[in-house]
Amino acid sequence: MKRSYQALEPTLFFLMLMVIWEISARMIGQPYLLPSPIQIVMRTIDLSESLFFTHLPATLAIISIGLALSIVLGILLSLLMFWNERVERAVYPLLVASQTIPVIALAPIFVLWFGYSIWSKVAVTVLLTFFPITVNTYDGLKSTNRQYEELFYTMGATKRQLFFRLFVPSTLPSFLTGLRIAVPLAVIGAAVGEWLGANEGLGYFSRRMMTQFDGPGVFAPIFILSLLGILGFAAIKKLENILLPWRKKQ
């Protein structure tokens, strides 16, 4: 009963925002400037074949490859920083500095380096997503209880056993938190990369509709991108509930 009530509040608030948006758009009466939610949904249905069978797979490929690379790079880099203080002192400031550079400024450079291939968009996605994964995983490793580590050594545990039976379980909550943050950022990175240089993808399609002053057409792929981010976030949250059931009780 309590969960149903908690879910009802954001649902009602969302519906209220949609009603306000619908009324405001109809009062303005300029769909190319502010299309209404109903117009966006109808346009999404009209363009569904192109959006879902051509452009959505291209965007999903960028998101999947970018996230996979970020996970691998983030875990490896966090382990290197954890095992070697010199690496941590040298790399950590560069990690922070990488997030101060506007992605919109680097995206054209990636297009120059990789052309209009998938890799220019993947590079933008990795730039946005590897930071939260790396930092959260590193913080999880650093926050492992040292008393447990000493207990493992006292009981004769090997370094391999210590890593997989103590550090991995201790770091998993932080890693999943970083991944939960990275998934919506991956959607943004893919869209930005496609917007600046691509031949297909939801971001590219939105830009193409903009040149035709098709307001609902511009918002249709944005609507799908938003759904992708929400579904990805929910999927990681569900995985977190499965792997860490004790968190739900806190």
TrEMBL record:
Q: Where are the transmembrane segments?
A: 12-33, 53-82, 94-116, 122-141, 162-192, 218-236
Q: Which GO terms describe its cellular component?
A: plasma membrane
Question: Signal peptide: which range, if any?
Answer: none
Superkingdom assignment: Bacteria
Q: Does the keyword Nucleotide-binding apply?
A: no
Instruction: Tell me which residues make up the ABC transmembrane type-1 domain.
Output: 56-237
Membrane topology reported for the UniProt record: Multi-pass membrane protein
> Where found?
Cell membrane
The protein's matches in InterPro entries, at most eight in alphabetical order, are given as:
MetI-like, MetI-like_sf
User: What Gene3D superfamilies does the database record attribute to this sequence?
Assistant: MetI-like
For biological process, the GO terms are: transmembrane transport
Family annotation (SUPFAM superfamilies): MetI-like
Q: What are the UniProt keywords, alphabetically? A: Cell membrane, Membrane, Transmembrane, Transmembrane helix, Transport
Per the similarity annotation, which family is this?
Belongs to the binding-protein-dependent transport system permease family.
Name-wise, this protein is ABC transporter permease
Q: Which organism is it from?
A: Halalkalibacterium halodurans
